[in-house]
Specification:
This protein is an alpha/beta fold and 306 residues long. 44% of the residues lie in helices and 21% in strands. It has a five-stranded mixed beta sheet, sandwiched between helices. The chain is rod-shaped and about 90 Å long.
Length: 306
């Protein structure tokens, strides 16, 4: 069966007045219903028992129904009271949680920071930054999201992230320059260039490259730097993931231009490139006011990288 109501302009105002009348009373009702006792509810709310009783009676008057009935030294819900409690208890809990979250976010010693980081950042360095911050602010929660640069930028723009390291920074987001990332030549341990202290990019024109797709910034650098040296790199494999590129380099299937990796015996060696082969790192933020916890974390990241 479908029940229809005819709308008239005064309905919105009457609904708002009804909500205004009952909303301040629902906290007292929820506490009494949960505790089954007016005195305990008053202690929980930190108000006089008489105040709780008045609020409950005002709510019963507003809805036109008895919501409680005596039960020994306490009270019990009526059928109507149980129905109302089942409907509003999750809402009251959600409101309590929302207020707690907002208050935590206003406290620099608590709250949540949503932090983004590109997959090409040094994982050991990021872990150290997070560990040091946790020591200084153990009650601040940090959610770390690792993704490719464009995905990170998109999450900053739409508000899913508060802060993110960007390599390089993008023009449409506020950012703080915090340093640069060196790009090295990575070869297998058996490669003829593995023992060199430095390699000029022009020496690599006959090498097979393993590289990221053309939409990635590392690939843009490879193509532009090789063009400056007068050749087009021969890319035999295009791969999204840096770790997979390292594995193929270790197997001798090509060379790659990558940031320095973790010190590990993975079958590869990084050789410095001649010239200024670096890219900029920025700490980006959204176009919204940061919480106290986010501001504190931002200052920590800046200090850690400078």
């Amino acid at each position: 069966m479908m029940i229809c109501f005819q709308y008239h302009p005064g309905m919105d105002e009457s609904i708002l007045r009804y909500a205004d009348a009952v909303a301040p009373l629902l906290g007292a009702f929820d506490s009494v219903a949960t505790e089954g006792h007016v005195t305990r509810a008053a202690e929980l709310l930190g108000v006089p028992q008489s105040s709780v009783s008045r609020r409950v009676k005002a709510l019963e008057a507003a809805v036109g129904l008895a919501l409680f009935q005596p039960a020994g030294r306490g009270v019990a819900l009526t059928v109507s009271g149980r129905e109302l409690y089942d409907l509003i208890h999750p809402i009251v809990q959600a409101l309590d949680d929302a207020v707690a979250v907002v208050r935590d976010n206003a406290d620099p010693s608590r709250g949540l920071v949503r932090f983004g980081c590109p997959l090409t950042m040094d994982a050991v360095r990021i872990a150290q930054v997070l560990a040091n911050f946790h020591t200084a602010a153990p009650d601040v929660r940090v959610h770390l999201i690792q993704a490719h640069g464009e995905a990170i930028a998109g999450m900053i723009r739409d508000g899913r992230l508060d802060l993110a390291l960007m390599i390089p920074p993008v023009d449409d987001l506020p950012n703080i320059p915090i340093g640069t990332q060196r790009i090295d030549l990575h070869v297998s341990t058996s490669h003829p260039l593995a023992g060199r202290e430095e390699v000029h990019l022009g020496e690599l024109q006959d090498c097979a490259f393993i590289a990221s797709p053309r939409t990635f910034h590392l690939r843009t650098l490879l193509d532009s730097w090789c063009k400056e040296e007068g050749f087009v790199p021969r890319v035999h494999f295009e791969i999204n993931e840096i770790d997979t590129i390292r594995v193929l380099v270790a197997r001798g299937l090509g060379v790659a231009l990558l940031p320095p990796g973790p010190a590990a015996d993975d079958g590869t060696i990084s050789v410095p490139l001649a010239g200024h082969r670096r890219r900029r790192i920025g700490l980006a933020s959204g176009n919204h006011r940061p919480t106290a916890a986010v501001h504190r974390f931002r200052e920590h990241v800046v200090r850690s990288f400078r």
